[in-house]
Specification:
homodimer; 259 residues; alpha+beta; Arc Repressor Mutant, subunit A; Chorismate lyase; 2 domains; two-stranded antiparallel ribbon; 10 strands; 32% strand; DNA-binding
Chain lengths: 259, 259
DNA sequence: AAGTGGTCTAGACCACTCT
DNA sequence: GAGTGGTCTAGACCACTTT
């Protein structure tokens, strides 16, 4: 059993917070390393002489901070943080497309990991109001909808849905499950829609329950909601992509103009 | 008292999760709008015939999801989400500097809100190993350290620490609390350090307790850790800025090269 | 079988807000 | 003072993992 600080009854700080503080210090100081098991609830009850509900409250704090994960029947463990995956500013560069790689696969393969895609579905359907507006399409216009989930070393890290105007993508390889080498951007360019710029906007937030299930997220892990719009050289938006990233798996990199 | 679904004893789902599900539906469906008060714990105990601890567990779920905030003595309320503040891709553009505005103030003022800065401190100190490395300075080199907190309409939304090589910034307006019109980037350019590019990297994560206090974050709100390095035209890094953003207050916008 | 966390009960007392 | 959430106790039974 690791060393833990005594309670300070004069501090006025709630007992469960003091217990959480002690455990947090043990984790951040490295006394409890990544993957280490915390003292069991019973041990903490004994150590501090409190009710079990109180030590559970302490552990719940650490769980929502993303510091620990409980495993039923096994114990509570310091969370192992996945290696951060770079999403680099040049990930949609033409050189990757010309190398025949889609952006995600190029990125992951470069880091020596296994990437895969599942839950792939491709349909054609009328655009929702919000999608039509952002693609600058008339209400109810048909769009090709490509939905998929990305995995690294077998673990889901990202799910994405792309919408493309059906008058561009319909009947092409883009409407097929496998769009071919270089991904849909390579096909768009072959179809004469040279990409001019990509605009991304991001928000960080806590996941909704659906996203927790989809990405198999432990408690205390936020997501990044990312919306990308690809514009062709004529200024027309040719793709809208809505992505949800597991927040603990990515570092996003961008370049900003100084001019 | 709003309508809430009955428990389903055959579902196998924990009672507190079922209660949370019902309340979450009421919130996401709009039945309980932004700022609305939830039924009190006592009312929920009565409604569901469970122990108080059980309804508190349900409410705790919603709190960690960032959906509700409890106010001691008043009730539990649907969280009012602050208006998302755009951090646009051009926020460091020279036109803003030439207009005499720093990036943050330009951004906020454009949206018709009040911005302010507090907890401003400027010191000169030896760089830590990590700072020296990223600024490509020898170990222990002196850096000007500018630390500050940004507020919008009086509420903290961002805290930031900038590090600049003392051989560039020492003894200049950059080492003063008020660096003058256009901010430190305007001063850097006047000193002959034309900015070439800015590189930003971002991660989303749950805040540590210090950050919760600094930014007055309610539970269930992640932060974005943002690191920016500004490079001069000669390729030299001239500023490292480490920023923590309240995740629920910002949407970040970037442009990506398609080439 | 023993040990772990997951769920739930039925209380108690406290601190805060509102009227 | 009445109503609200915040903290804490002392149990109980269950489900899962390990030996």
């Amino acid at each position: 059993m690791i060393a833990l600080p005594d309670l300070d009854p004069r501090s006025g700080r709630a007992v469960f917070r003091q217990i959480a503080d002690g455990l947090r210090d043990a984790i951040t100081s490295g006394q409890l390393g990544s993957g280490a098991r915390l003292p069991s609830e019973a041990e903490l009850v004994e150590r501090y002489g409190t009710a079990r509900a109180t030590v559970r409250q302490a552990l719940a704090i650490l769980a929502t901070e993303g510091l620990v994960v409980a495993e039923h029947g096994r114990g509570v463990f310091v969370r192992v943080r996945p290696a951060l995956r770079r999403l680099a500013a040049d990930r949609f560069s033409r050189k990757h497309r010309e190398a025949g790689l889609s952006a995600f696969i190029a990125e992951v393969t470069a880091s020596g990991h296994e990437s895969s895609v599942d839950r792939l579905s491709v349909t054609t359907a009328p655009a929702s109001e919000s999608v039509a507006e952002r693609l600058e399409l008339p209400a109810g216009a048909q769009v090709v909808v490509r939905s998929r989930r990305y995995l690294v070393d077998g673990r889901p890290v990202q799910s994405a849905v792309s919408y493309l105007p059906a008058d561009i993508a319909g009947g092409t390889a883009i409407a097929e499950p496998d769009p071919g080498p270089g991904g849909i951007y390579a096909r768009l360019e072959e179809l004469g829609h040279q990409l001019e710029r990509l605009s991304e906007s991001l928000v960080a937030r806590m996941p909704v329950p659906d996203e927790v299930a989809d990405l198999e997220l432990p408690p205390g892990v936020p997501v990044v909601g990312l919306v990308r719009i690809a514009y062709a050289t004529n200024g027309r938006p040719v793709e809208l992509c809505e992505t949800v990233l597991a927040g603990d798996s990515f570092v996003l990199e961008y370049e900003l103009p100084a001019r």
